[in-house]
Amino acid sequence: MGLRTPLFDTHVAAGARTVDFGGWDMPVNYGSQIEEHHAVRRDAGMFDVSHMCVVDLRGDRVRDYLRRLLANDVAKLTQPGKALYSCMLRENGGVIDDLIVYYMNDHWYRMVVNAGTRDKDLEWLRQVAAGYGVAVEPRTELAMIAVQGPNARAKAASVMPPEIAQRALEIGPFFGIDAGSLFIARTGYTGEDGFEIMLPAEHVVALWQGLRIAGVAPCGLGARDTLRLEAGMNLYGNDMDETTSPLESGLNWTIAWDPQDRDFIGRDALAAQQASSDTRKLVGLLVEDRAVLRSHQKVIVAAVGEGEVTSGTFSPTLQRSIGFARVPARTGDRCEVEIRGKLVPARVVRPPFVRHGEVAIAL
Amino acid sequence: MSNVPADLRYQKSHEWARLEADGTITIGISDHAQQALGDLVFVEAPEPGRHVNAGETCAVVESVKAASDVYSPVSGEVVAGNADLGGQPELINSDPYGAGWIMRVRPDDKAQFASMLDAKAYAAALAAETH
Known about the structure:
The complex is a heterodimer of chains A (363) and B (131). Chain A has 363 residues and is α+β, with helices and mostly antiparallel strands. Chain A is 23% helix and 34% strand. Among the domains of chain A are: 8-48 and 141-230, Probable tRNA modification gtpase trme, domain 1 (Gyrase A, domain 2, 2-Layer Sandwich); 280-359, Aminomethyltransferase beta-barrel domains (Elongation Factor Tu (Ef-tu), domain 3). In chain A, helix 2 packs across helix 8 (221-230). The model of chain A has no long low-confidence stretch (mean pLDDT 97). Chain B has helices at 31-37, 84-87, 91-94, 111-114, 119-129, and strands at residues 9-10, 15-19, 25-29, 40-44, 51-52, 57-63, 67-71, 76-81, 103-107. The longest helix of chain B has 11 residues, at 119-129. The mean pLDDT of chain B is 95. Chains A and B meet through loops of A and strand 4 of B.
């Protein structure tokens, strides 16, 4: 038996099939993964993401600490509540984890890291914190629900106390607010609008049931994966890990090179890699045949070299198979993928595949 | 719990078979198999006229999650593949023992069908698998 979130019994009672995910027993679907996917694209769906780890970072020098720790620069965060997506790197440029950090005030930032990497993340956070007098506080008493979809914010607000609902609906994209026992952020992992709501574990079942009554569909990790892939978002452990850098993972946009004197961990290794010609990149793939991309399939780029699919699935929105692959940097707009013993042609495309319910690539 | 109709025969690899009045055998995948695979997105059913051997891969079913081979429980000639699955692979999810059938075979030797698991033995195999 794995770890269980406070919603585990609720999921089982709702007919969820569960799987092991990073040591946690999590719902993979409640019947049809594709219907759950469409619920998020067309209306509103919710995910139990209580397995993710919320960490509060406090101290007078917490800003300096995060500017050393993260490849993206928290100095970009000037308004309270604003969030930033970043990688946390080893000195060699390998990705320890990807995360979101919220600027709460000059002495407090809130971070959300992945479940499967929690222990090594906390160890690293504390190791670097020692030089900055920063307290690293995992908030294990908090649960989290992601409510996503075009109607997600309205439906979620309908179950909140009026004064909190009012504030929640005023939250700008990629901001979070501390509203008493609730922390509400306008963030997500689906390419749709919505909230991620953190709250004390003892209240999470009531919120889940309330959302259910408000017409929000429970969704499992299966739909979460197809949604994030369509949205062009990486999954740690599939698309990047400690053996790959952000430059090889389609995450160049998350590296803050300026100001040039900011000495973040991994910077020298990234700079050296950028100067080298023998590099790889992460691209999106679209398959036109009736075949489905899966992790670890071999990619062949004629006259250039080989690569590997890092994530793949069938896209319910596009009705085609899509995926990500790590390929040589000189790869053009076509390649072939070895799928079940056959070479299948694929188009190289720039993710996202789908954004806000609309197809975002040429089919 | 998954549905295991009493009037069908099964394989441990989760195919079901039904002996029809005309002596042909209809083959599909079990309710347990469709639940484990999740939503099906592609089905490659065999062409009529092909000869398949017992234990041979005769079809491929692919879900959002994974691709899986379907093994023929009997040797014989394929007399029909379910053409509806081309456009509606989800028929296997909604009706695995009915509209979601995969192929129909004229068996070389009916004894192969008789030696398949009955519903009770298959249900026991499922119970053992989940423990």
